[in-house]
């Protein structure tokens, strides 16, 4: 992608001062760019050049600010091409209908999703506490053949998740529960072998519920955005956080998922509850 950015910069003739904040996300045929500090005219020139340069891009939007709110949404402004936010995205042999303005979706987690799906065994019962449109849950069902319960508070994301289950022929394996996962946790009798917590800005608030929903020897995949100059510093901050929430018998392996900003790292803890 950096090569495409520099070609688009050259084509748009907007000089070398352009700072594309964190690269370009391409979801289906929609490109999402961050161009802080550039005049609108220059942004539009860059976006038009990007649409011309990348063959499958039909719409270009600017992301203004961060990913925000309970539903973790991007605030988008149209820059070039068609004006629509609904698209079809392909990843790991699955297809997803996504509305990039009304649902969370990041194409940057595809490797992580695949590695989780590959670690699941067919007989497992899996819970995804924060499912979005299904990009973690659907490959778990499709690749491992496991049964998945997906919780999601955003009604639009639930609708698309159910549609995506049908598109990927896993509607017999994946159940979507609409609503706040902590309220659902209070009422359900279900217990799980593996629990996914892909909500890195808030997962800490839900870890006690995850432990309650877990079977004796369950695995919990816990994701967090952690402040740290390097992985070591981020790892020790995460370790401290987990020590205050987890039962003492729980074992954990910490790893870096990706860098998410200057001094911010997305870390994962793979937690094994039982012996
Ligand atoms: C960071 S996104 C991850 C979505 C999805 N796993 C993915 O990778 O595309 C977190 C998701 O959790 C949902 N969410 C936030 N709070 C929730 C809650 N209390 N119960 C259920 N879902 C929640 C948001 O709407 C959002 O879709």
Quick summary:
Helices cover 32% and strands 34% of the residues.
Explain the overall architecture.
The chain has 275 residues and is an alpha/beta fold. The chain folds into two domains: 83 residues, GMP Synthetase, Chain A, domain 3 (2-Layer Sandwich); 168 residues, Rossmann fold, CATH 3.40.50. 32% of the residues lie in helices and 34% in strands. It contains eight helices and 13 strands. The strands form three sheets. Strands 9-8-7-10-11-13-12 form a seven-stranded mixed sheet, with helices on both faces. It has a four-stranded mixed sheet with strand order 1-2-3-4. A hairpin with a 2-residue loop joins strand 12 and strand 13. Helix 6 packs parallel to helix 7. The longest helix is centred in the C-terminal third of the chain and has 15 residues. The chain starts with a helix and ends with a strand. It binds S-adenosylmethionine. S-adenosylmethionine binds next to strand 8 and helix 6.
């Amino acid at each position: 992608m950096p090569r495409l950015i520099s070609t688009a910069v050259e084509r748009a003739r907007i000089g070398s001062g352009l700072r594309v904040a964190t690269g370009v996300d391409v979801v289906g045929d929609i490109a999402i760019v961050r161009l802080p500090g550039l005049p609108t005219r220059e942004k539009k020139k860059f976006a038009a050049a990007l649409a011309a340069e990348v063959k499958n891009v039909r719409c270009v939007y600017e992301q203004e600010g961060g990913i925000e709110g309970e539903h973790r949404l991007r605030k988008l402004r149209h820059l070039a091409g068609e004006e629509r936010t609904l698209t079809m995205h392909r990843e790991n042999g699955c297809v997803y209908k996504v509305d990039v303005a009304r649902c969370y979706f990041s194409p940057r987690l595809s490797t992580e999703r695949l590695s989780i799906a590959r670690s699941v065994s067919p007989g497992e019962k899996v819970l995804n506490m924060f499912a979005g449109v299904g990009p973690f849950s659907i490959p778990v069902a499709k690749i491992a053949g496991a049964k998945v319960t997906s919780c999601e508070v955003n009604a639009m994301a639930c609708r698309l998740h159910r549609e995506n289950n049908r598109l990927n022929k896993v509607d017999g394996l994946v159940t979507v529960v609409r609503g706040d996962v902590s309220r659902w946790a209070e009422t359900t009798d279900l217990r799980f072998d593996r629990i996914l917590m892909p909500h890195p800005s808030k997962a800490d608030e839900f870890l006690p519920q995850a432990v309650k929903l877990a079977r004796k020897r369950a695995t919990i995949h816990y994701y967090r955005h952690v402040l740290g100059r390097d992985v070591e510093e981020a790892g020790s901050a995460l370790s401290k956080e987990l020590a205050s929430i987890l039962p003492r018998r729980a074992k954990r392996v910490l790893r870096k998922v990706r860098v998410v900003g200057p001094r911010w790292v997305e870390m994962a803890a793979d937690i094994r509850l039982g012996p």
